[in-house]
Amino acid sequence: MSAYDHLDDIISKGKTALLPIAEKFARDFKDDSVFYVVASGPAYATAYTMACCHLMEMQCKHAVCLHSGEYFHGPFETTDESVPLILIKTVGKTRPLDERVERFLEKYAPRRLVLDMQELDIGVIDENVVEYFASSIMIPIERFIVSTMAELRGKSMDERRYMWQFEY
Q: Which CATH superfamily is domain 3-153 in?
């Protein structure tokens, strides 16, 4: 279980490397009201967290979480030059699904952000188990991206409209 010993370092290095991308995302997407977040396999939980918790709950932005394998079963028809799409590419068995989505987005979705787990310093984790750490690594990374946008918007990630404000 030495993989756990590397997580903090992988995430820290990832945030440093992705800072320019996070800042560009913040500038380019801060005024958008709806986002599509696409992922597969073990990174699907990351997409769900990004859409439901970080974009919807914490930033009051509409967001849709889509599985890469389902993207071509209809949702891709909404893809155009104006809709922001975020693709979280995993490693492992479902990566080809993410790569297929990425190829399509490169042609038809200029307003996209691709977060690729493989571009992080994951080589220190055994390749036989690294895919199981997808969400442990990618949730802090995607939250960093959304937090950067939150700072630019002046909208705290801790602020809520209803949660903890009223009985429900």
A: Glucose-6-phosphate isomerase like protein; domain 1 (3.40.50.10490)
23: phi then psi, degrees, rounded to nearest 5: -65, -40
Name the nearest CA neighbour of 40 among 16, 71, 9, 61: 71
pLDDT of residue 1: 63
Distance CA 86, CA 156 (A): 21
SS3 35: strand
The beta-strand segments (E) located in 5-164 are 34-39, 62-67, 85-89, 112-116
Q: Give the mean pLDDT of 76-102.
A: 97
Strands 62-67 and 34-39, how do they pair? parallel
Per-residue pLDDT tens for 78-87? 999 999 999 9
Q: Using the 8-state DSSP alphabet, how is residue 168 labeled?
A: -
**Intra-chain end-to-end CA distance of the chain, in Å:** 41
Q: pLDDT tens digits, residue range 117-133?
A: 999 999 999 999 999 99
Which residues is 37 bridged to in the sheet?
65, 86
Q: Give the C-alpha distances (Å, rounded to integers) separating 161 from 32, 54, 156, 157, 167.
A: 19, 14, 11, 11, 12
